[in-house]
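Backbone-to-sequence.
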């Protein structure tokens, strides 16, 4: 008898590669979790045909109706797509992808599913559909009444969390405050423990080159980041820094720290993607820290340029479900 967590996988933008990576990755993820796809059965069927898969598609109206079979994908069918057109930005596709996420959040909040793993949405499409959020993370926080949260990216031994993400760089610098850095250190420590990391060590990156080089290149390190690290250490968190951004990531990847707190989006994303996107297999996982529910995601976009060709690699999705299972347990 199976005793596995139930993971709701949202299908992502219908015009992208979400359904294809679900189909390609299903044989592996079905072995580690009871998987229900939240999306459109017609789009998943199109992906099955595109990938020449032997899987069947099982439309359901309720998670309780899912068979969780190894040869059939259970799809909680929201029936939002009337016609499928790959590789295009459409308002109705943005609305559909938001509806999939909203339903998954409802299921997770109710305890019907144990975790959410999201396939990629397209931010321009969701903005056309009226979303006020730049991506998944803000929506998840709003629907779970979460004030303090952070994005953590994972690739093998390197983990990176963020003080800010989808804001212009000029604004990101202003968001480096003692309170924000301390909140990120706290949720990072909590999230690592939830993932099974005992007594985590957290490195904190500086904002400026060379972590300001003793104040020669800026004052954010001394005024904002150092006080946050000192307060975190006073609370019993094993944190250190601020460290020079150009050296802290390879050091952490080599085992010096369990996670690096990054000050802004690209500072944290670039080292993860240099490692995870270095070969044909696209890997890396996005974990939302601080939520009362478990949410992981692929660390790539909708790949409109190859959607409908079944060329997308499912590695990131497989890794995301694996981490969701670990956190749910």
């Amino acid at each position: 008898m199976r005793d596995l967590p139930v993971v709701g996988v949202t299908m992502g933008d219908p015009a992208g590669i979400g359904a294809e990576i679900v189909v390609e990755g299903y044989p592996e993820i079905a072995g580690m979790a009871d998987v229900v796809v939240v999306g459109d059965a017609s789009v998943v069927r199109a992906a099955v045909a595109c990938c020449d898969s032997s899987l069947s598609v099982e439309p359901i109206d309720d998670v309780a109706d899912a068979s969780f079979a190894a040869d059939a994908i259970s799809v909680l069918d929201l029936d939002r797509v009337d016609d499928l057109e790959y590789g295009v930005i459409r308002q109705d596709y943005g609305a559909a992808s938001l509806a999939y996420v909203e339903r998954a959040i409802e299921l997770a909040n109710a305890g019907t599913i144990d975790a959410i793993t999201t396939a990629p949405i397209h931010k321009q499409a969701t903005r056309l559909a009226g979303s006020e959020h730049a991506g998944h993370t803000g929506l998840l926080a709003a629907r779970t009444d979460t004030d303090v949260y952070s994005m953590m990216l994972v690739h093998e031994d390197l983990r990176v969390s963020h003080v800010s993400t989808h804001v212009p760089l000029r604004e990101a610098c202003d968001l480096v405050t003692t309170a924000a850095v301390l909140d990120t250190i706290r949720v990072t420590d909590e999230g690592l423990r939830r993932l099974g990391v005992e007594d985590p060590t957290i490195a904190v990156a500086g904002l400026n080159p060379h972590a300001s080089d003793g104040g020669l290149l800026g004052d954010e390190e001394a005024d904002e980041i150092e006080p946050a690290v000192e307060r975190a250490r006073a609370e019993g968190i094993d944190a250190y820094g601020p460290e020079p951004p150009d050296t802290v990531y390879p050091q952490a990847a080599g085992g010096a720290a369990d996670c690096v707190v990054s000050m802004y989006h690209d500072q944290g994303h670039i080292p993860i993607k240099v490692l995870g996107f270095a070969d044909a297999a696209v890997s890396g996982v996005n974990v939302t820290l601080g939520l009362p529910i478990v949410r992981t995601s692929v660390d790539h976009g909708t790949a409109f340029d190859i959607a409908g060709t079944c060329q997308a690699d499912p590695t990131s999705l497989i890794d995301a479900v694996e981490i969701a299972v670990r956190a749910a347990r």
